[in-house]
Design brief:
By secondary structure, the chain is α+β, with helices and mostly antiparallel strands. The protein has a domain of 103 residues. The strands form two sheets. The protein has a four-stranded antiparallel beta sheet with strand order 1-2-4-3, covered by helices on one side. It has a two-stranded antiparallel ribbon with strand order 5-6. Helix 5 runs antiparallel to helix 7. The radius of gyration is 19 Å and the shape is globular. It starts with 18 loop residues before the first strand and ends with a helix. Bound molecules: adenosine-5'-triphosphate (ATP) and magnesium ion (MG). The site of magnesium ion has 3 residues, from loops. The site of adenosine-5'-triphosphate (ATP) has 18 residues, from strand 2.
Length: 235
C-alpha cells in the first residue's frame, strides 16, 4: 500500500456518506470530514482558540486523543483495545485530510452491522445483550471519554463484542471530565442509560440525583485545572 501519495477519493463510491474503503486494502476505511461541517461556523466554540486552531478536524483530534490515552495505559508494549476502533493514521486525500481506521467486518468481509442495524433487523438477542453489558462495564471502568454513544456508533464484531467506531472524546470547552474520573463515570453512566432507553432496553430515569456532589466535583476539577495552568506559567 502506498502511504505517501495523496489518495484520490472523489472517483470512489463511499460505503457510507463520508466513509470509503481503502482501494488497496479493504480492511481499512478512510474517513473524511463533512463539507457542510467545514462551511459551518460553530458559534458555540468561538471562545476556544485551541479548538479553532484544529478547526473542522476536531472530531478526528478527539478520536486520536482517546486512542492515545488508551494506549498510554500500556507504555512500550502491544495492547489493542477491542472495544475501540483502531486508528491507523492520518493521510492526505483529494477531499482533505482523512483518518485511516481499521474496518470492523462481518464474516463475509462486509462492513459489520451497527447496534442500530441489529435492533432494526430483529437480531439483538440475549447474546448481543450480554455483549452490550460487557461493553458498558468496560466503558465505565476505563479512562475513555465518550460524547456520542448512539446505536449507530457501535459496530458488532463477529467474535461477539461491540466496537465504538465514532463518538469518542470530549466536546466540552473545558476538559473537566478528563481530569475527574468520577465526573467522567457519572457522564458515561448517563450516556449508557440514554443508549439503553433508545434501543428499548430500559427507562431513562431523567436527571441525575447528585447535583450537589456534581457541583463540588466540577469546582474541584476547575481548581485542579487552574493550579496546573499556574504551575506551567510560573515554572
Ligand atoms: N471502523 C468501522 N468499521 C465498520 N464500519 C464503520 C467503521 N467506521 C464507520 N463505519 C460505518 O460508517 C458509518 C458512519 O461512520 P461514522 O459514524 O464514523 O461517521 P459519521 O460522520 O458519524 O456518520 P453518521 O452521521 O452517519 O453517524 C457507521 O455508522 C458505520 O456503519
Ligand atoms: Mg457516527
Amino acid at each position: 500500500m502506498d502511504l505517501i501519495s495523496p489518495l484520490e477519493l472523489t472517483a470512489l463510491n463511499p460505503v457510507q456518506k463520508l466513509v470509503f474503503r481503502h482501494p488497496d486494502d479493504p480492511r481499512v476505511l478512510v474517513k473524511v470530514v463533512n463539507p457542510r461541517f467545514i462551511e459551518r461556523r460553530d458559534k458555540r466554540d468561538r471562545f476556544y482558540q485551541k479548538r479553532r486552531r484544529i478547526g473542522h478536524h476536531r472530531a478526528f483530534a478527539r478520536e486520536m486523543i482517546e486512542h492515545l490515552a488508551s494506549r498510554a495505559l500500556a507504555p512500550g508494549r502491544l495492547a489493542p483495545y477491542p472495544h475501540m476502533q483502531n486508528i491507523l493514521g492520518v493521510i492526505d486525500t483529494d477531499m482533505g485530510a482523512a483518518l485511516l481506521v481499521e474496518a470492523v467486518l462481518d464474516e463475509n468481509g462486509e462492513l459489520a452491522p451497527t447496534l442500530h442495524d441489529l435492533v432494526e433487523g430483529g437480531r439483538f438477542g440475549p447474546h448481543e445483550q450480554r455483549a452490550l453489558e460487557r461493553f458498558a462495564d468496560w466503558a465505565l471502568a476505563s479512562n475513555v471519554l465518550i460524547n456520542d454513544l448512539s446505536p449507530d456508533n457501535l459496530a458488532w464484531h463477529p467474535s461477539g463484542h461491540f466496537v465504538m467506531i465514532d463518538g469518542l472524546g470530549d466536546r466540552a470547552g473545558i476538559p473537566i471530565r478528563a481530569v475527574s474520573p468520577w465526573l467522567n463515570r457519572v457522564y458515561k453512566r448517563k450516556k449508557i442509560r440514554h443508549l439503553l432507553a433508545e434501543i428499548g432496553m430500559g427507562k431513562d430515569s431523567g436527571r441525575s440525583r447528585k447535583p450537589i456532589a456534581i457541583a463540588v466535583a466540577i469546582i474541584l476539577a476547575l481548581l485542579g485545572l487552574l493550579a496546573a495552568q499556574m504551575e506551567l506559567l510560573l515554572d
